Amino acid sequence: MQVTSHEPGTFCWAELSTSDSDGAKAFYKAILGWEYTDNPMGPDMVYTMIDVGGSVVGALYQDNSGQKPPCWGTYISVTSADEAAETVKANGGTLIAEPFDVMTVGRMAVVQDPTGAVFSIWQAKDHFGYALEYEPGAVCWNELMTRDTAAAEKFYTSVFGYGIKQSMMPMPYTEFQLDGKSIAGMLAMKPDMENVPPHWLIYFAVPNCCAAVDNAKSLGGEVLFGPFAVPNVGNIAVLKDPQGVAFGIAGE
Fold first, then answer.
1. Is 54 exposed, middle or buried (0-12, 13-18, 19+ CB in 10 A)?
2. CA dihedral 62, 242, 112, 88 (to 10 degrees)
């Protein structure tokens, strides 16, 4: 659906940091139908806006610093980045980057929760975030993978005021809610993921999950999980792009 703003506490932006922007563009265009607009940001930086049917759904950029592995980053909308940053610190979170202005488009900070997962907070100015969600090619879900669900639950409910809904799918599953609406999920990481750090996993909607999985494999992607049928949701899978970045897909 089309959106024109994001309420505080909701997820509002998806950003890919990659080691190969051209390779990532080709892969995700084939899987998710993305189109791109490159925006030079200096001699060594191009920030690429991603759109589906003319609606912005995220961004990507090539990181040549070697300081972190390629990854998808998720952003949560806040009214004030400075106030939210203080709340983060008061509840055991760490600020990887203190609040700073991104030109005139917004103000942000990079956060690590007490269990180790990283995300960003975004105070919108000229740019409110993605304009399309829950449609093919757009973000449809964010899911926290962590080894300490109790600590994570305490942190996110305290910082963002989330309500909690517990279920079995068939493993224990937590949904974070705002005004009774589920906006994200949380899963405990399994022992076989001991080498994977806690993280937020972004899911993108696709028309057909199995077809998208086959397409990803043919283009050098890797299947980490699925396809798997989820009641009242459809089929989901977790993939890794050719640059080694994990993401989820959900569809029929």
1. exposed
2. 80
Nearest to 249 by CA among 19, 82, 31: 31
CA atoms within 13 A on the CB side of 83: 7
The model carries a pTM of: 0.96
CATH number of the domain where residue 107 is located = 3.10.180.10
- What DSSP state is assigned to residue 42? S
Q: Rounded distance, CA 104 to CA 140, Å?
A: 27
Residues forming beta bridges with residue 177, ordered by sequence position = 163, 182
Residue closest to 247 by CA, chosen among 37, 8, 57: 57
* Residue pLDDT, tens place only, 102-153: 999 999 999 999 999 999 999 999 999 999 999 999 999 999 999 999 999 9
What residue numbers bound the domain in which 237 lies? 139-251
Residue linked to tokens 């999985």: 213
**Contact between residue 117 and residue 146 where contact means Cβ atoms under 8 Å apart:** yes
How many beta carbons lie within 10 A of that of residue 246, not counting itself? 19
CA terminus-to-terminus distance, the chain: 17
Please calculate the CA angle 205-210-213 and round it to the nearest 5 degrees.
Answer: 80
Q: Are 71 and 17 in contact (CB under 8 A)?
A: yes
Based on the structure, what is the number of domains in the chain? 2
Quick one: 108 and 173 in the same domain? no
